[in-house]
Specification:
Thrombin, subunit H, 6-stranded antiparallel β-barrel, mainly beta, globular, 6 strands, 108 residues
Length: 108
């Protein structure tokens, strides 16, 4: 399944929390990461928006991530298909074990 970014919602990703995704950049860099969080942000949602703003946080071992800071990526999952390109940014891995790299995608 491939969906338009405008149709994505937290409800699509919540059932696959804890599952593995692949992030692939235009230059071919790939990173395998686990969907660690899927949070809705109703207060950040624009009035009249068709969906509630949400964010996804992906984690992987920091040594696997290396110096990858984030980029425009195509996100893929075996059951959901591919989405993107969308922007993924490396964030502080607060609340995760030492040695973890965390990346966030925000949808408004």
């Amino acid at each position: 399944m491939t969906a338009s970014l405008s149709t994505l919602s937290a409800g699509l990703f919540a059932p696959v929390l804890g599952e593995v995704f692949t992030l692939r950049t235009a230059d071919g860099h790939t990173l395998t990461a686990t969907l660690a969080r899927c949070d809705e942000h109703p207060r950040a949602t624009m009035p009249g928006s068709d969906r509630t703003a949400f964010s996804l946080v992906f984690t992987c071992p920091a040594e696997a991530a290396g110096a990858f800071p984030g980029d425009h990526c195509v996100l893929s999952h075996p059951g959901l298909g591919a989405f993107g390109p969308l922007y993924i940014e490396r964030i502080l891995a607060v609340g995760f074990p030492p040695g973890t790299a965390a990346y966030e995608a925000v949808f408004s």
